[in-house]
């Protein structure tokens, strides 16, 4: 951790942040599509459970 001293003698600690990774165009589209389909199935399942309860 990087520590700096502020006015008045107080110490301020900064965490080390990870390096940024730049994604190429089109990278990760299959994961986004899979997440969208999974979310849609979850919503439909919750609707079916709610309809079954009532």
What does the average pLDDT come to?
A: 87
Radius of gyration over alpha carbons?
Answer: 23 Å
Q: Structural class per helix/strand content?
A: alpha+beta
**How many strand elements?**
2
User: Strand order across the biggest sheet?
Assistant: 1-2
The fraction of residues assigned to DSSP E strands is 5-15%
Largest sheet: 2 strands, antiparallel
Counting DSSP H or I runs of 4 or more residues, the number of helices is: 1
**Run of helices and strands:** EEH
How far the N terminus sits from the C terminus, by CA atoms, comes to 55 Å
User: What portion of residues is helical?
Assistant: 40-55%
Shape: elongated
Unreliable runs, pLDDT <50, ≥5 residues?
A: none
Provide the descriptors you would attach to this structure in a database record.
single chain; elongated; two-stranded antiparallel ribbon; 54 residues; alpha+beta; 2 strands
3D structure, described in words:
This protein is α+β, with helices and mostly antiparallel strands. It has a domain at 27-54. It is 46% helix and 15% strand. Strands 1-2 form a two-stranded antiparallel ribbon. A hairpin with a 5-residue loop joins strand 1 (2-5) and strand 2. The termini are far apart. The relative contact order is 0.09. The model has no long low-confidence stretch (mean pLDDT 87).
């Amino acid at each position: 951790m990087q520590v700096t001293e502020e006015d008045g003698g107080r110490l301020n600690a900064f965490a080390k942040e990870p390096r940024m990774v730049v994604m190429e165009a089109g990278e990760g589209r299959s994961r986004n599509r899979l997440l969208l389909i999974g979310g849609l199935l979850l919503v439909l399942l919750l609707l079916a459970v709610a309809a079954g309860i009532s």
